Amino acid sequence: MDLTTLSASRRILLWAAVVSGLLLAMLDQTIVGTALPEIVQDLGGPGWYVWAFTAYLVPATVLLPVAARLSDRYGRRHVLVAGMGLFVTGSALCAVAGSMPVLTAGRAVQGVGAAALEALSFIVVSELSGAGRRATGQAALSAVMGFSFVAGPLVGGLLTDHVGWRWAFLVNVPIGLAGMAVLVRTLPRQFGRHESRETPLDLLGIATLTVSVGALLLGLNRHQQLGTWGDPASGGAVGVGVLGLLVFLQVERRAVAPIIPLRLLRDRVTGRILLAGAFATTGLYGAILLLPRWYQLEEGTSSTGSGLRLYPLLIALLLAVNIGAVAVVRRRDVRGPLLVAGALVLVGSAAFAALDESSPGWHPLLAMAVLGLGMGPALSGLQIAIGRTSAPADLGAAMSALLLGRQVIGAVALAAAEALHRSAAMEQGPTAATGTTVAWVAGTGAVVAAVALLGLRGRLPEGPAAPAPSEVTEPRGVASTSGA
Q1: C-alpha separations of 218 from 61, 210, 223, 391 in Å
Q2: Contacts of 182 (CB under 8 A, 6+ apart)
Q3: Beta partners for 479?
Q4: CATH code assigned to 1-192
């Protein structure tokens, strides 16, 4: 079934529903962070502070490939509508919560729904768009992600300061219900089914992936709170996560229909794209963690004011997402444009490394703008590359692996940024420590991504890779025009 044959009006409605679902899922990660101090003060239970974050983050991350894989089996519409329904239910539960345990439970339900919304938004838009519009679709969704990262704290601050924290959750309900209605009306029931229901479901793979990535995220999150790896809740959980991932790799080697086919990771092209995608935007995580806090604690700005000061990063990111998408599609080359973008990240990192107490107010704003210009192309360009080099039956697994890697390495970047900042602040002071930390986190990610991209040769195919003759398709690499 070809979504490109839908009428223009149905296509617009479907686009709006999918984008609104992704926007809700991504914004909720950052809006609630701003509102949470007041939520904890209102409902009590400061010990639940970290769990309100973790309850959302863990399922929203670990279930990305699970949601994509289930949609291959049961169709995109069933999983996407179920995800939006869970997200709306969790939002309503949070909005009426009278205690932190209830709110945390609602956040967990939201997280399960968010995994489906995030994973399937990119997959459906890639399938919805014709070859000539696929870059536009991925650029639009990447722009939504970038907007959510930066605008979320500002929106959360405005809602909390002026109408109350419960509206940070209530606003999701009517938008989510409208999106569900549109999806049921416009998205074909069986669209996206690439796997027979007779194929054994990889339950052991789902279990080991959930436990291992969940433990890893819990440990990294707790390390930010405790500041030590010696505690079982931090270092112990990370150790369990790493061992679990090793077990997961063994399980996937033997699975009939693995959640994440290991051949995607071994493939010379797809593996490098996934590695670059995981590391290219680590600077975004570091900047969003440290810069608002620095502005509030050291510069004396309000929550809303600190959010406004991130707008150079937001505007540059939105521009670069679209510029990068156009460059990748026109050149049919992901390596060249993204290496240039990575060089910009290094320039922005150098600017942050020079930040100190004597720096003028425009210095961090300019550094943010350069970082945004450098990281934006990776958000859109690598997703376009995955769509072009993956066979249709592999698109869900490949796209969800890209998103999962970005989230997990982002969590690692947050933990590393917190630890580095804590150490540097004692020697350099808070301002220089903030600049140094953002510089190291962003620069390291850019270098790793560049090394991965340097191994790519040839041009991208005009459209998605064709399926292999067998039911289990192999992803096709970059179309070789250089003998590689």
Answers
A1: 12, 12, 9, 34
A2: 13, 14, 16, 17
A3: 459
A4: 1.20.1250.20
301-331 burial, b at 16+ Cβ within 10 Å, e below that, comes to bebbebbebbbbbbbbbbbbbbbbbbbbbee
**In CATH, what class is 260-466?**
mainly alpha
3-state secondary structure 221-271: HHHHHHCCCCCHHHHHHHHHHHHHHHHHHHHHHHCCCCCCCHHHHHCHHHH
CA pair distance 348, 368, nearest whole angstrom:
7
Phi/psi of residue 479, nearest 5 degrees: -60, 120
Distance, in Å, from the CA atom of 477 to the CA atom of 228, rounded to the nearest integer, reads 43
Q: Which residue has the tokens 């970047």?
A: 413
Q: Which residues on neighbouring strands pair with residue 459, listed in sequence order?
A: 479
> Tens of pLDDT along the chain (484 residues)?
455 566 777 777 887 888 888 888 877 777 776 677 778 778 877 667 667 777 888 888 888 888 988 888 888 888 999 999 999 999 999 999 988 899 999 999 999 999 999 888 888 877 776 544 555 666 677 777 767 766 776 777 777 777 788 888 888 888 889 888 888 888 877 776 777 777 788 889 889 998 998 888 888 877 777 767 777 878 888 999 999 999 999 999 988 888 888 888 888 899 999 999 999 999 988 888 788 878 877 777 776 677 778 889 888 988 898 888 888 888 888 899 999 999 999 999 999 999 988 899 899 999 999 999 999 999 888 888 888 888 877 888 888 899 889 988 988 888 888 888 888 888 888 899 999 999 999 999 999 999 999 988 777 766 555 444 333 333 334 443 333 2
